[in-house]
Design brief:
Length: 124
């Protein structure tokens, strides 16, 4: 997927996601009942992603959105772990981005970084 299209897709999804959250906060639920708009939105989004990326690529995009909060999550307050799940006591959490490649470089911390990373998982 071209970066411009990826950016537009993620930003549009982010706006819709935020709108649904704001509406839910004031009493409108679009996940259940007659107007199940949020699951429909998510289905369309996942369908578009699956046309371009493998399951692993989609997992990373979903991680960026939901776990990394569209790149806004403050990871500095959390522990840093090694590959075995052990806390690294002297690690500088302020430099942590939540996910790193095998060389320790941050991945999926911005929309552009996420796009660059998941391009290796594009379908042929």
């Amino acid at each position: 997927m071209k970066y411009a299209d990826f950016l537009k897709l993620i930003k549009t999804y982010q706006q819709l996601y935020n709108n649904f959250n704001e509406l839910y906060a004031i009493g409108f639920d679009f996940t259940d009942g007659k107007y199940k708009l949020e699951p429909d939105m998510d289905f369309l989004f996942q369908t578009i992603l699956s046309a371009y990326y493998t399951e692993e690529g989609i997992d990373w995009i979903n991680w960026f959105i939901y776990e990394n909060e569209f790149g806004k999550k403050d990871w500095s307050k959390l522990n840093v772990y090694d590959m075995n799940g052990t806390v690294i006591p002297d690690a500088d959490a302020a430099k942590a981005y939540g996910a790193c490649d095998k060389d320790g470089n941050p991945i999926c911390h911005t929309i552009k970084a996420t796009w660059k990373y998941v391009e290796q998982f594009k379908k042929n």
